[in-house]
Amino acid sequence: MASSYWDSTQRKFWTFSKQQLALERKKIEESERNLVNLYPLPDRRLLSIYFYHQLAKMARPLGIRQQALATAQVYIRRFYTKVEIRRTNPTLVLATALYLACKMEECPQHIRMVLAEARHCWDASFNDISKIGECEFTLISEMNSQLIIHHPYRSLAELQTHFTLIPEENTLAWAIINDHYLTDLPLLHAPHEIAITAMFLAVVLKPTQSGLQPNAAGVANALQTLGNVRNTGGQGQQTRNQKLVDWLAESNVDIEAIVECTQELISLYEIWETYSDKACKEQIAKFVKARGLDK
Amino acid sequence: MFTGYNNKKRVNERYKIVGFISSGTYGRVYKAEGKNGRTGEFAIKKFKPDKEGELQYSGISQSAIREMALCTELAHPNVVHTVEIILEDKCIFIIFEYAEHDLLQIIHHHNQPQRQAIPARTIKSILHQLLLGLVYLHRNWVMHRDLKPANIMVTSRGKVKIGDLGLARLYYKPLHSLFTGDKVVVTIWYRAPELLLGSRHYTPAVDLWAVGCIFAELLSLRPIFKGEEAKMDSKKTVPFQRNQMQKIVEIMGMPSKDRWPLLAAMPEYGQLSSLAAGNARFHRPQGLENWYQMCLKNNQYPAGSSPENPGSEGFSLLQQLLEYDPQKRLTAEQALQHPYFTVHGNPSENCFEDSKIKYPVRRVSQEDNDIRTSSLPGTKRSGLPDDSLIGRPAKRLKEG
Asked: Which N-terminal stretch is annotated as signal sequence (chain A) (predicted)?
């Protein structure tokens, strides 16, 4: 896939620098200054966690696979860099993104099933498939029909054979990739950079000892190991870590990118501590109700 | 609800419809000219909604989604260029660069009024460009799955472009077996033997078999394996395409386990033995080499090794493309390396170079010029039949 990622619309049109992304968001916020002031929202990462929980709730009964879920998350993130969230009914956008992602990831779901599950799992107010159908047009147009997503899972599979990760490490790396969709990383970095970060953290965090849930402190420790790479050839204690560090130093992987990804994940795990399902739900409901977006 | 879908682009503001080109299971294709500062000619494909006369949004079909995504993603000189996609008022329009010809029309022109062979240089250039496009698709993990003369476009400058990605798919790690999604693909005459024998895990090699069939058709001006399609029965079970397999065996001989080790593992393997019963030609197949020599003779290619003759290299390439075992069949990259392309100098980048033949322009009908309204998509019209020109068998089954 390497060759296809480099020429992909994902790289050409949907990978930003941090500054570019901030600018895009500022633009749409400025255009809806009033709404933004009237309806404050939780941190974007907290909203992303909320969205993910919602998507997962719906994906379970439909048997939708992780990759389709990931694609839906990327669609939602892309869409909201172009459309102010307070102008939309997020529930409808979520259902539609999942419906579209399932088609793209070759596990299609009937639009009626998606509607039925949205109503069942989320108590969604819309009750007509044409709402999802119409929203699909909007979603595709805003994304300029650029629907093919390159995920880090495939790069991880390649790395896994190269480094012979143990199953626990692989599981942890996979979980870290799942988590990165809660951040802006999919819009900031190439999938192989994410995969390398995930693998690196998985190996350094040693899942067998610390359990499978990564946390901010653990990841911060890992950053120090990365620091060794930057100073090239620090004396790592474990041979395995050392092998990884050497490989990172010798490969033309952008170490700064790996550091950035790691920092982004640290701050995700930090803010996660403050997450409240209720707060997100209520704050979204406020503008949806007030503006009649659910009608 | 939502602020509502209001598109920013409108087809009629950007393009002037010149006429109607063709229709198919997917919808209709129009010829158009640029408007308001936009110049050039275009082909606009309008998708028909799932149900006739659909006035509501009902979700876009998976095949349309695939085609939109692939058209947006792919860019290569030998793949039809997608200019833009417009979603407007429940309709989807894909705007392509315009191509004046296609291989079906070129083959047809050489059959009328009397048969006259396509120059060997033209064929070599067409095949070379076709393979360049296919290498690109396969490198990007895209299988075309419906290569046939009608889907290979040729511009007036002799550039060959693979068109109609309506059945194309990304094939890396499909979530389901590729078989389950769409029951049957590829127009039957160009369908690879492993598909006819019910293979569930088919590969890009199916496209190379189709290239072999197209090569043969360019040489002989007739489809090499012109079988009759067995229709799906009322229970929607996929039938064994007995007649098509027969046509292949009549020329190629029976496939054998020696040459194709996995043959016996094919779901329809049992059907093969019954093919031979009562059919004398099975025991004395024509043989591809005899077919090839007859074809060159009938179409009066000059004898001897020269650029005017496809020669023994042409046969060697054809034979390796029409290889029963998909694992032994040439890949697109290998095919490009074949001496056929270099023995008498490199193929031209313009397939019409040094050719004196004038091909007619694409027929465009005037009776349906309003892309936005009037004719409801999918309604029967008396315009050109599907794929135009001569009667072709049904192309594809609707996806399940």
From this structure: none
